[in-house]
Amino acid sequence: MAVLTLAELATITRGELHGDADAVVSMVAPMDKAKAGDVTFLSNPKYAKHLGECQATVVMIKAAQRDLCQGNALVVDDPYVAFAKVAQALDTTPKAAQGIAPSAVVAADVKLGTNVSIGANAVVESGVELGDNVVIGAGCFIGQNAKLGNNTQLWANVSIYHRVELGSDCLVQSNTVIGSDGFGYANDKGEWVKIPQLGSVRIGNRVEIGSCTTIDRGALDDTIIEDNVIIDNQIQIAHNVKIGYGTAMAGGTVVAGSTTIGKYCIIGGATVINGHIEIVDGVTITGMGMVMRSIEEKGMYSSGIPLQSNKEWRKTAARVHRIDDMNKRLKAVERLLNQDAKA
């Protein structure tokens, strides 16, 4: 169990401590459940009313709420960011592997950095390069000539195909597949002819990828994920997609081939993005968005129908089917009105 003094918390968060610097904490907890030995935080002002009852050893808080906190307080610029940093410092999640398991199959010419760990039944093929402190979980597959940068960790059963490159400090959750064939076929008089996917996947530094996500290799050029991108669970990224620096994608999103997504975009869950389009920097797409055309201006975009009762939804669906007829009738009325106005 990790234990930190409040003085150490102040250093980690670059905050200003008010209280006992020698007091210690070992867990992060929500404000309503925190007890002695815990650290909590206030990021939403509507919860400030609970500060008087909070039992945490220290509360991370903005300066504006400092007077509401009766006990130890750590004044920070952004309590939620401070929470993330402290949670990292107190994290006790084990590594996906420790040392190189006897059952791991590692080709003779693999280049291993220092302190590499490879779990049971993992397979690392010829020509692979693994940087310092790389961790490969049990049952992973690393294909020929793939490269993993320093401090990158794969959880169990991740598959990294041939020639795929991951940068430093990446984290990939279980059962994700990177570098599988893109969906490329030609149709010869009704018969599908497979197009070999000759590109690869290049992933930058500090990229995190959730479980059961698939990132396809490029058909000719590479699929590219830039630095500091976060990708949730069960996402499909097709061949030759490019995702810019700092973009975040929530679960269930599907991106069709050859689409470019800019920097600092936020893609809500279950969004569907068409292929061969471009989305500029700074775009937010709310959940279940359907993006059929390029987005050329930053901002927030939404689509889809909000949830209704079944009775209301049936009425809405019936009206949608009549839109074309209603549009024709409206234009006819407008023509009559225009004729009357000219008379």
TrEMBL record:
UniProt-annotated catalytic positions: 239
Gene Ontology BP, a term: lipid A biosynthetic process
Top-level division of the source organism's lineage: Bacteria
Top enzyme class: transferase
GO cellular component term of the entry, any: membrane
Catalytic reaction(s) noted: a UDP-3-O-[(3R)-3-hydroxyacyl]-alpha-D-glucosamine + a (3R)-hydroxyacyl-[ACP] = a UDP-2-N,3-O-bis[(3R)-3-hydroxyacyl]-alpha-D-glucosamine + holo-[ACP] + H(+)
All residue ranges annotated as the UDP-3-O-[3-hydroxymyristoyl] glucosamine N-acyltransferase non-repeat region domain in the record: 22-88
Pathway(s) of this molecule: Bacterial outer membrane biogenesis; LPS lipid A biosynthesis
Pfam families given in the database record: Hexapep, LpxD
Record keyword Membrane present: no
A GO term, aspect molecular function: UDP-3-O-[(3R)-3-hydroxyacyl]-glucosamine N-acyltransferase activity
Record key words, sorted: Acyltransferase, Lipid A biosynthesis, Lipid biosynthesis, Lipid metabolism, Repeat, Transferase
UniProt EC number: 2.3.1.191
InterPro entries (alphabetical): Hexapep, Hexapep_transf_CS, LpxD, Trimer_LpxA-like_sf, UDP_GlcNAc_AcTrfase_non-rep
Family affiliation: Belongs to the transferase hexapeptide repeat family. LpxD subfamily.
Subunit structure: Homotrimer.
Function: Catalyzes the N-acylation of UDP-3-O-acylglucosamine using 3-hydroxyacyl-ACP as the acyl donor. Is involved in the biosynthesis of lipid A, a phosphorylated glycolipid that anchors the lipopolysaccharide to the outer membrane of the cell.
The protein, known as: UDP-3-O-acylglucosamine N-acyltransferase
Gene source species: Vibrio sinensis
